[in-house]
Design brief:
Layout: H1 6-13, H2 17-26, H3 39-49, H4 61-66, H5 69-94, H6 101-132, H7 136-155, H8 159-164
Length: 183
């Protein structure tokens, strides 16, 4: 069969020219003397390079394909370890040592909300203090004190208390007025 250009062969195979050049440089495909590619030879070479029974250059894959005893032993060991891990997880789930994902997400949401409300409350608390400062040094000292106080408060936050309460500490429940008219 006649040869075609590398670009044409790349179009036929729906890959880039660079991919074809990479296959040529790896020795998978061979350029013909005129600089083109024989498509029939190239297709056979690609099929041969993708054949799973062909011994690979990747270490260990060829031995596993041939059924080497060391490779089989390694695979059996991996299988046994995976089965042991699976049985440990099942046992932990049955003995209630695992926490449900949805429960954990709800807990994390409550903690995040408590943290967020305390950090956002800092700006409202600091506004009058900063307004009263007259120099840059006073501003810096007030902000440093506020940072220290806020971080100390957050470090002392007990997650169990936050989780137990429906709303974070300091937040007040709003009374919702009924829209129905009483008769």
């Amino acid at each position: 069969m006649k040869t075609i250009s590398i670009s044409e062969y790349a179009r036929r195979k729906a890959v880039t020219r660079q991919r074809i050049y990479a296959l040529i440089s790896r020795g998978v495909l061979v350029k013909e003397p005129g600089g083109g590619i024989n498509p029939a030879k190239a297709d056979r070479a690609l099929k041969r390079s993708l054949d799973p029974t062909r011994e690979s250059k990747i270490k260990g894959l060829g031995r596993a394909a041939r059924g080497d005893k060391k490779s089989l032993l390694a695979e059996k060991t991996r299988l046994t370890a995976s089965q042991a891990t699976l049985s440990e997880l099942k046992e932990a789930e049955e003995s209630s040592r695992l926490i449900d994902k949805n429960v954990m997400l709800a807990v994390m949401d409550k903690l995040h909300l408590a943290f967020r409300s305390r950090v956002l409350a800092r700006s409202a608390k600091m506004a009058p203090v900063l307004f009263g400062c007259e120099t840059l040094v006073e501003l810096q000292a007030a902000l440093k004190d506020s940072d220290h106080e806020c971080l100390t408060e957050l470090a002392g936050m007990n997650p169990a208390e936050v989780i137990a309460s429906d709303q974070p500490e300091g937040a007040q429940k709003k009374k919702v007025k009924s829209r129905r008219k009483r008769r």
